[in-house]
Every structure is written in structure tokens, then in C-alpha cells.
Design goal:
This protein is an all-beta fold. Helix content is 0%, strand content 52%. The strands form six sheets. Strands 3, 4, 6, 7, 9 and 10 form a six-stranded antiparallel sheet that branches. The mean pLDDT is 89.
Length: 260
């Protein structure tokens, strides 16, 4: 600006530096209301951040400091921001978080409700170890049992199994499968030997169970099963092996004959 003293005039340059005076948080183009929590069913939340100077004009963001003012027991939140002003807040567990972002004398607060959600269904062994996906179950009986666990977005197992919708996606011919669930134990019962596929879905989590039912010889069937013969007569008998479903599907080649 210009200044004068008597007949003398001076030009004094003044540099007005921008000062961050307001931090604006937005999600989906809408400004975040600090009294209305954001909701996420994942392990993170993305937020767009803009800074305004003392004249209400957009300005580059200075270094920002993040802090968690409250959260669930054992919960923690960490944040990072890209060069384009998109922040990603990562959470360590489900629950309600209150967070603050500060830059200079400006700050903004917001809350996020992290909803616990089943993101995976897994089979586990007796020791609690997770079995590889696609591992087949094999039984020589009429049913097979396996333990299922639901994992949340943080990889933690739910204490109880949520409701799962099961469908039979493949079976041998007219074979059928039925299923019961009790305390995380899934029992699948079958009506015929062969390969079966069952799919369970809860929310965005799914699991496919592949089961091979092998035949087991459980009894013999003799045809004819009763006949009267005279001394010197001969008779040809057919021996069939019945499997665990009482189906004549097993060839018997080494039967031992005894008289009684």
C-alpha cells in the first residue's frame, strides 16, 4: 500500500499469508455433521478434507494431527492423507469412535460407528486352526460334521454363528442333502453315495462345502433268499452288496459261504 509523509510518498509492500482457519470434512459430497456419526461396515473410512483460509478461500492443507478422543475398549484409529486431500482412517475394532483432526489453530471433529460385520466363513479343525478353502470332506457314513466360524472385518471370530442360508448346489442324480446347525457345528446328511456341494451365505460372506460320500458295505442281499432243494439239486444264487443307504451298488467278489 502507499503512504505519504508531507511531500514524500512511500510504497510499502505487505504480504498477507494464508492461515488455516477452518477444516471441512466431506463424505460423498456432503459435509460431515459432528453430531451425526458416519457408519461403516468395513475396517476403514475415507473422508475428503478441505482447508479454508482467514478469508474463506480454499488453501493447501498444512501438516495435520489426528487424535482419537474416545473409542471402544481396546479400539484404536490411525489416519493417513493423500496429496489430493483424501484421508483414510483405519480402525482396529468395531464400535463408536470420536476423532479430531487439527492443523494450526483450526480443528474439526467427527464420529464413526464401525459396525461389526461377517466378512468370511471358514472351516476350523479341533484345535481351532482354519482349514484351507475348498478342502473336501470325506465320509463313509450317511452324514459328516464340520465346525464353521464367521470372521468379522478384523479377522476375529464371532462368539456365536450368525444365521446362514444354505443351498445344495450339486448332488449325484436324485441324491439329496439336509443340514442342521448347532453351536457352530454343521451336520450334513445325505441319501446317496457321490459328490455333493453345499453353499452357505451370510451377508457378504460365503463358504462352499464339498463332500464326497464313499460307499460302505453294510449288508448282503441273497437272491433268491429262500428256496427248498432236494438232495442233489443245484441252485445259483446272486449276492449283492448293500451300501449304507441300503442301495445295491457294491459288487461282492469274495463272499465266504457257510452252512447253518
Amino acid at each position: 500500500f502507499n503512504a505519504s509523509v508531507g511531500a514524500m510518498q512511500f510504497q510499502i509492500p505487505v504480504m498477507v499469508s494464508p492461515v488455516l482457519s477452518e477444516i471441512i470434512l466431506e463424505v460423498g459430497g456432503e459435509r460431515v455433521d459432528p453430531l451425526n456419526p458416519l457408519t461403516t461396515a468395513t475396517a476403514s473410512q475415507r473422508i475428503n478434507i478441505r482447508g479454508l483460509d482467514q478469508f474463506g478461500q480454499s488453501m493447501s492443507l498444512p501438516s495435520l494431527t489426528w487424535s482419537t478422543t474416545s473409542g471402544p475398549a481396546g479400539g484404536n484409529a490411525t489416519s493417513s492423507i493423500s496429496s489430493s486431500g483424501v484421508a483414510t482412517v483405519n480402525f482396529s475394532g468395531a464400535g463408536m469412535y470420536a476423532l479430531r483432526v487439527r492443523g494450526g489453530n483450526a480443528s474439526a471433529e467427527f464420529r464413526v460407528n464401525v459396525v461389526r460385520t461377517a466378512t468370511a466363513l471358514v472351516q476350523v479343525n479341533a484345535q481351532g486352526g482354519v482349514l484351507s478353502r475348498g478342502a473336501s470332506l470325506i465320509t463313509s457314513g450317511t452324514s459328516v460334521s464340520t465346525t464353521i466360524r464367521a470372521l468379522d472385518q478384523f479377522g476375529r471370530a464371532f462368539e456365536s454363528l450368525p444365521s446362514i442360508d444354505w443351498t445344495n448346489i450339486s448332488s449325484p442324480g436324485d441324491g439329496a442333502a439336509s443340514l442342521t446347525v448347532l453351536n457352530g457345528q454343521v451336520r450334513l446328511s445325505y441319501t446317496k453315495i457321490g459328490s455333493y456341494g453345499n453353499r452357505g451365505v451370510t451377508g457378504n460372506a460365503s463358504l462352499q462345502l464339498s463332500v464326497r460320500v464313499n460307499p460302505t458295505l453294510t449288508s448282503l442281499q441273497l437272491t433268491p433268499n429262500q428256496i427248498a432243494l432236494k438232495t442233489g439239486d443245484t441252485q445259483q444264487f446272486t449276492v449283492s452288496g448293500l451300501d449304507q443307504f441300503v442301495h445295491s451298488t457294491i459288487t461282492v467278489s469274495n463272499a465266504i459261504w457257510r452252512t447253518s
